[in-house]
Design goal:
Oligomer: heterodimer
Strand order of the largest sheet of chain B: 1-2
CATH architecture of chain B: Orthogonal Bundle
Strand order of the largest sheet of chain A: 6-7-8-3-9-10
Radius of gyration of chain A: 25 Å
CATH class of the largest domain in chain A: Alpha Beta
Distance between the termini of chain A: 61 Å
Distance between the termini of chain B: 33 Å
Number of domains of chain B: 1
Number of strands of chain B: 2
CATH class of chain B: Mainly Alpha
Number of helices of chain A: 17
Helix content of chain A: 25-40%
Strand content of chain A: 15-25%
Number of strands of chain A: 20
CATH topology of the largest domain in chain A: Rossmann fold
Helix content of chain B: over 70%
CATH superfamily of the largest domain in chain A: P-loop containing nucleotide triphosphate hydrolases
Shape of chain A: globular
CATH topology of chain B: ABC transporter involved in vitamin B12 uptake, BtuC
Shape of chain B: globular
Largest sheet of chain B: 2 strands, antiparallel
Structural class of chain A: alpha/beta
Order of helices and strands of chain B: HHHHHHHEEHHHHHHH
C-alpha cells in the first residue's frame, strides 16, 4: 500500500527507439485509479508506441511499468490480460461471420455439464447483457450485418464486461460515431468510471477530451510535454502544447472562384441513397458536400470518381456528357482524382515503400528507354512531394506502414497530386489524423485551388467544411436541400439544418 | 559541446539504421545463405558436385522448372494463384508437336519451327487470358478456377494423344531446350537471361510495379486510378505465355511430348517460389529470390542423386527439406516482426 494516492498504472522513464529513431524519450506518467485520462498529441508524437508498451505488444528499451505496486520492465499480452488491461482498437477485431452472441462470448461460452456450448443460455446471457448497456440488438444477428456503429459498441462492450478489465484503453473510439451515439458511449464510460474502471482515452477530437477526461497528457515528438487536470487548461493552451507553436487551423482564402462550370451533376440517382441530385462545380472552387451518415455523400464521391455506378443521371465534365464513368482509371483520364476516407482499405499499399506508394500514379510519365521507369526522376519527384507536403519519414525508402496516420495520408495525397487531376474528390481527407497534418492538408487544398484545380470536399468534420469551402451544399432526404456561401453558416446552424425534420422526412 | 553531442547521437542513429538495413537485406536474401550452406555441405559430400559440368547441369536442369517459377511468380505477386501452369505447359508442348512434328498423331502440317513456337505461345497466353478474364473481371475464385482449368487441360491432353507421345521435333525447335553454344547449354543461358529480363521487368516498368501494388492492396491501387482488373488479366496472360515458353523448352529437351511428361512438377514450382520469398499473400518477393529458391531446390535433388540416394527416397527427402526451409523462413519472419 505504498501507492496511497491511488495510482494504478505508473510509467517510469520509458525509452523506446525504432531503427535508431527515438520514439519515446524518458516518459513518466502516472494514471490514477478510477479516472479517465486523456492522451493527445500529433501523429508521430509517440501515442501508439506508448499504448503498445502498456498493453504488452512492444518492449521498452529501458524504464519500468508499475502496476498495483508491482514493477515490470516489460509486459506481454497474456500478462496484461491477467492484470486487467485491455485496448479497444480503431480497427475492430470482431468476427463478421459470427453472431453477436458468439462474438461476445467468444472463448467464454456458457457451457453445460458435458462441456457442450449451451446456445440457449449463451443467447439469453447476451440479450441480458445488451439490455444492461442499452443496446437493442438481437444477439443471434450476424455481426457482419450490423452497421459500423453497432459493431464498435459490441467491440467496446466485449472488452468492458466479459473480460472484466480494470484499465481500458480507448483508441479513437468516437471516430465513426454520430453525436447521439457519442453521448451514449460517454454515459456508458462515466458509469463504469463510477464503478472504479480506469480509462486511457486517446482522441484527436479535443472537445471530447474536455468533455469526458479528468486529466490529460500531451506528448510531442516522443517527449512528455504536459499532464494536468482538464479543468485547469484551455483548448488553445492544449493545442499549443501539442503543436509547439501558435495555430491557425484554416488557411486564409481569397475569393478566386471563376463562374465557369468544370463539372456538373444532373439528375443523379442511386438507390436507396438519393433520387435526384443536381449541382455544379466551378473552376478553382472548393465545394463542400455536407450530409449525415447514410445521406449518400460517399456514393456521390465514388460515382464521380468511377468507383461506383449510378442508377440514372448525367455527369458533365468540361461540357462533355457521361452517363457513367466506367472505372477509376477512366476517371483519372478525364481529370478526376479521388482520395478515400479509408486509407487502410483504399489508400496505402502497406508493404511498399513511401516512394513506391507515391509514384504509383505517375510512373507512366517518367519512363525512358524501353519503357523502363527512370528511377532518378522517380526519386527526385517523390522527394519533392515529401518536402512540399512535409511528410515525416526517415527516407523515401521507408515502408509506408511504419509511418504515422497523418503522414500516410499525406503520402496518399502526394500520390493523388502526382496524377495531376483537375478535379479533386476528397472524401474525409483529414479523418483520424493529427492537428498538424490536418493544417497541412488544408493548406494543400487551398494551393491546388489557386493553381486552377477544383475540389469537392466531403467531411465528417463539419467545422472543416465551414473553414475550408467556398460554397457548401447540404445533402438531405435524397437531394440537395440547400446551398450556402462561405460565411453564411456556422456550426450550429449547419447541424440544425441537417438534423431538422429528420424522421418525418420520408 | 552541445552541437557535438548531437552529432555523435545522429551518427549513432545512422549506424543503427545501417545495421537494420544490413539485417533486413540478410533476411531478404535468406535463401541465398541457405543455398551457400547446402552448397558447401554438398561439396563435402561429393567430389563431383563443384565440377563445371555439374554446376552447368544444375542450372540447365532448373530451366523448365525455373520458367514455370517465373510464370507463377507473376501471378502470385498480384495475390492470386495459378494451379494450371503445369497442364498449360504440357498442353502447349503437345500443340507444338501437333504443328511441327511429322508424327502420325500430328496435324501433318509440319509448320516452320518459328511459326510453331509463336502459335504455342499464343495458345498458352490464351489459356492464361481465360483464367485472367474469369478471375480478374468476373471475380471467380482463383484457386477453383485454375484448378478446374488444370483438370480440363489434363483431360484435353489425354483426349488428344491418348497415352502416346508425339515425336520427333525439328532441331531448330529443339535448340531452345537442348541446344548448346560451344560447351554451354543454351537452357542455362536462356534461364539466366529470362531471370534478368523479368527482374528488370518487375522492378523497372510501371506494369511490374503495379503487380506489386495490386498484390499489396487491390482497392488502393484501383483508387489510385490503375485498372486492377486489367492488371490481373494481363498477369495471367503473361503467365500463360511463360507456360508456353516452358513447354517449348520441355518438348525440345525431351524431343517428345505426352500427357504425363511433367506430372508433379507444379508442387516444386510453388515450393521454389515460396522458398525464394514470393509471398502467397501477394505483393512481396523478387525474381532474384525466386532464382535462389529454384537453385536451392535443384541443388538438393542434384546432391541426393550424386550420393546415390534411392530414387524412391528422393521425393520424401526433398519434401522434408522444402518443409524445413519454409519453417526456417517462417521463424525468421516472426523474428523480424518482433525486431
Amino acid at each position: 500500500m505504498k501507492n496511497s494516492n491511488g495510482v494504478i498504472l505508473d510509467i517510469k522513464d520509458i525509452n523506446k527507439s525504432f531503427a535508431g529513431v527515438k520514439a519515446l524519450k524518458n516518459i513518466n506518467l502516472a494514471i490514477k485509479k478510477g479516472q479517465i485520462h486523456g492522451i493527445v498529441g500529433e501523429n508521430g508524437a509517440g501515442k501508439s508506441t506508448l499504448l503498445n508498451i502498456i498493453i504488452g505488444l512492444l518492449r521498452p528499451d529501458s524504464g519500468q511499468i508499475v502496476i498495483n505496486d508491482k514493477s515490470y520492465t516489460h509486459l506481454n499480452t497474456q500478462l496484461t490480460k491477467k492484470l486487467g488491461i485491455a485496448m479497444v482498437h480503431q480497427n475492430l477485431s470482431l468476427f463478421p461471420n459470427f453472431t453477436i452472441a458468439e462474438n461476445l462470448f467468444f472463448n467464454d461460452w456458457s457451457k453445460n455439464k458435458v462441456k457442450i456450448i449451451n446456445w440457449k443460455k449463451t443467447n439469453l446471457n447476451a440479450k441480458d447483457f445488451l439490455n444492461r448497456i442499452g443496446l437493442d440488438l438481437n444477439p443471434q444477428k450476424l455481426l457482419g450485418d450490423l452497421s459500423y456503429i453497432d459493431k464498435q459498441m459490441i467491440e467496446i462492450a466485449r472488452n468492458l464486461f466479459l473480460l472484466n478489465h480494470r484499465v481500458i484503453i480507448l483508441d479513437e473510439p468516437t471516430a465513426a460515431l454520430s453525436a447521439q451515439e457519442i453521448s451514449m458511449l460517454f454515459e456508458f464510460i462515466k458509469k463504469l468510471k463510477s464503478e472504479g474502471v480506469t480509462f486511457l482515452y486517446v482522441s484527436h477530437f479535443l472537445e471530447e477530451i474536455f468533455n469526458i477526461c479528468d486529466r490529460v497528457t500531451v506528448l510531442r515528438d516522443g517527449k512528455h510535454i504536459f499532464t494536468g487536470n482538464t479543468d485547469d487548461i484551455s483548448m488553445n493552451e492544449l493545442i499549443n502544447h501539442m503543436v509547439g507553436t501558435d495555430v491557425n487551423l484554416y488557411p486564409q482564402r481569397d475569393n478566386i472562384v471563376s463562374t465557369e462550370y468544370i463539372l456538373e451533376v444532373k439528375n443523379l440517382r442511386k438507390d436507396p441513397f438519393f433520387k435526384d441530385v443536381n449541382f455544379g462545380l466551378f473552376k478553382n472552387e472548393v465545394l463542400g458536400l455536407a450530409g449525415l451518415k447514410g445521406s449518400g455523400k460517399d456514393e456521390i464521391a465514388r460515382i464521380i470518381s468511377g468507383l461506383d455506378k449510378p442508377d440514372a443521371g448525367l455527369i458533365c465534365i468540361e461540357g462533355k456528357k457521361h452517363k457513367k464513368i466506367y472505372n477509376s482509371s477512366k476517371a483519372l483520364n478525364l481529370g478526376i482524382g479521388y482520395l478515400s476516407n479509408d486509407r487502410f482499405k483504399w489508400g496505402i499499399i502497406p508493404l511498399l515503400t513511401v516512394r513506391e506508394n507515391i509514384s504509383l500514379s505517375f510512373l507512366k510519365k517518367i519512363r525512358y528507354f524501353f519503357g523502363l521507369i527512370n528511377l532518378r526522376k522517380e526519386k527526385k519527384s517523390v522527394n519533392e512531394y515529401i518536402n512540399e507536403l512535409k511528410i515525416k519519414t526517415p527516407s523515401s525508402e521507408q515502408v509506408i506502414k511504419n509511418l504515422s496516420g497523418g503522414n500516410q495520408q499525406k503520402a496518399i495525397f502526394a500520390r493523388l497530386l502526382g496524377a495531376n487531376p483537375k478535379i479533386f474528390i476528397l472524401n474525409d481527407p483529414t479523418f483520424g489524423i493529427d492537428v498538424k497534418s490536418k493544417m497541412d492538408i488544408h493548406q494543400i487544398i487551398n494551393e491546388i485551388s489557386i493553381r486552377g484545380c477544383s475540389t469537392i470536399l466531403i467531411s465528417s468534420d463539419f467545422s472543416e467544411i465551414l473553414g475550408v469551402c467556398d460554397r457548401i451544399l447540404l445533402l438531405k432526404n435524397g437531394a440537395i436541400s440547400g446551398e450556402y456561401k462561405k460565411g453564411q453558416l456556422n456550426l450550429k446552424k449547419l447541424k440544425d439544418l441537417l438534423e431538422e425534420g429528420l424522421g418525418n422526412g420520408k | 559541446m552541445v552541437n557535438n553531442s548531437h552529432n555523435s547521437k545522429d551518427l549513432n542513429n545512422l549506424k543503427n539504421n545501417n545495421l537494420m538495413i544490413i539485417g533486413s537485406k540478410l533476411s531478404e536474401n535468406f535463401v541465398w545463405i541457405l543455398l551457400i550452406i547446402i552448397g558447401i555441405a554438398s561439396g563435402l559430400l561429393s567430389d563431383t558436385f563443384f565440377t563445371t559440368i555439374n554446376i552447368m547441369n544444375i542450372v540447365q536442369q532448373s530451366n523448365i522448372l525455373g520458367i514455370l517459377v517465373i510464370a507463377l511468380s507473376i501471378v502470385l505477386l498480384t495475390g492470386n494463384f495459378d494451379l494450371s501452369i503445369q497442364a498449360n505447359m504440357v498442353f502447349t508442348a503437345i500443340f507444338a508437336g501437333w504443328l511441327v512434328s511429322p508424327h502420325e498423331l500430328a496435324s501433318g502440317l509440319q509448320l516452320n519451327s518459328a511459326l510453331g513456337v509463336v502459335l504455342m505461345l499464343i495458345l498458352g497466353g490464351m489459356v492464361g487470358a481465360f483464367n485472367g478474364l474469369m478471375i480478374g473481371y468476373f471475380n471467380m475464385n482463383a484457386f477453383m478456377c485454375t484448378l478446374s482449368v488444370s483438370i480440363i487441360l489434363d483431360g484435353l491432353n489425354l483426349l488428344w494423344v491418348g497415352g502416346k507421345q508425339i515425336f520427333p521435333y525439328p532441331d531448330s525447335f529443339r535448340f531452345f531446350g537442348d541446344g548448346k553454344i560451344g560447351p554451354v547449354p543454351f537452357a542455362m543461358i536462356s534461364l539466366i537471361l529470362l531471370y534478368i529480363i523479368f527482374h528488370i521487368f518487375l522492378t523497372r516498368t510501371p506494369f511490374g510495379r503495379s503487380l506489386y501494388a495490386v498484390g499489396g492492396n487491390r482497392l488502393a491501387t484501383r483508387a489510385a486510378g490503375i485498372d486492377d482488373r486489367k492488371i490481373i488479366f494481363l498477369a495471367y496472360t503473361l503467365c500463360g505465355v511463360m507456360c508456353g515458353v516452358a513447354g517449348w523448352s520441355l518438348a525440345g529437351r525431351l524431343n517428345s511430348s505426352g500427357p504425363n511428361m511433367a506430372s508433379g512438377m507444379i508442387f516444386y514450382v510453388f515450393a521454389a517460389a515460396v522458398i525464394g520469398g514470393i509471398s502467397l499473400n501477394g505483393g512481396k518477393g523478387t525474381m532474384f529470390g525466386a532464382f535462389g529458391g529454384l537453385l536451392l531446390l535443384t541443388v538438393i535433388r542434384n546432391i541426393l542423386n550424386l550420393v546415390n540416394v534411392s530414387p524412391y527416397v528422393i521425393g520424401l527427402m526433398s519434401g522434408l527439406i522444402i518443409f524445413i526451409a519454409i519453417a526456417i523462413d517462417t521463424i525468421k519472419n516472426r523474428y523480424a516482426k518482433t525486431l
